[in-house]
Amino acid sequence: DGGITQSxxxxxxxxxxxxxxxxxxxxxxxxxxxxxxxPGQGLRLIYYSQIVNDFQKGDIAEGYSVSREKKxxxxxxxxxxQKNPTAFYLCASSMDSRGRQYFGPGTxxxxx
Amino acid sequence: xxxxxxxxxxxxxxxGANSTLRCNFSDSVNNLQWFHQNPWGQLxxxxxxxxxxxxxGRLSATTxxxxxxxxxxxxxxxxxxxxxxxxxVVNGRxxxxxxxxxxxxxxLTVWP
Lengths: 112, 112
Hints:
The structure holds two protein chains of two kinds. Chain A is mainly beta. Helix content of chain A is 0%, strand content 46%. Chain A is built from no helices and eleven strands. In chain A, the strands form two sheets. In chain A, strands 2, 4, 5, 6, 9, 10 and 11 form a seven-stranded mixed sheet that branches. Chain A has a four-stranded antiparallel sheet with strand order 1-3-8-7, with no helix packed on it. In chain A, strand 5 (43-49) and strand 6 form a beta hairpin. The model of chain A has no long low-confidence stretch (mean pLDDT 92). Chain B is 0% helix and 58% strand. In chain B, strands 2, 4, 5, 9, 10 and 11 form a six-stranded mixed sheet that branches. A five-stranded antiparallel sheet of chain B has the order 1-3-8-7-6, with no helix packed on it. In chain B, a hairpin with a 5-residue loop joins strand 4 and strand 5 (43-48). Chain B starts with a strand and ends with a strand. In chain B, 38% of the residues are buried. By secondary structure, chain B is mainly beta. Chain A binds chain B through residues 1, 31, 33, 35, 37, 40-45, 48, 50, 56, 58-59, 88, 90, 92, 94, 96-103, 105-106, 108, and chain B through 1, 4, 30-31, 33, 35, 40-45, 48, 86, 88, 90, 97-100, 102-105.
């Protein structure tokens, strides 16, 4: 949906490298989320943040890290500790923890 | 966490046909959303429907929270309706802070 941008659209990484995926929103939403999608699967939660300077682990946080220094930005770093990082990554935001979530267009990460 | 089951997993229709997609969930919810994922991976918000019935053009949705299910109706289907339809819920119990739990989706293919 409009108002959430993710970059890059496609990303290729060599094994052993860290990469950072960008997520920006101009909806003035407090809550932001990172999900991972594997082929034929639903989405699984990696990390989420309810307010600036605070975030919590989701179901599959191992090998990932995040920061929330600004309300509009929630970057995700995929570290070399993530054993199987090739996937489609989606960022979302909502007004608050109970609100409707809106999704960005996603980033496809491939490890070469 | 809460379990979300969608049926059928795959659905093939001729253009013009009607269809019903089902979402069952294992616990009380305070948020339920239906999404359509297009061929480019974008998740499109269809409905935010924790209870009751809503309609939007050829699509409508009903959630019966007390019986823990939701239905998505697609009437007079078109080829552009093809894609994966996801149901996602926020658990109404505990401190899960707005995180969405996704089903595995229904893959819809509409033939001309």
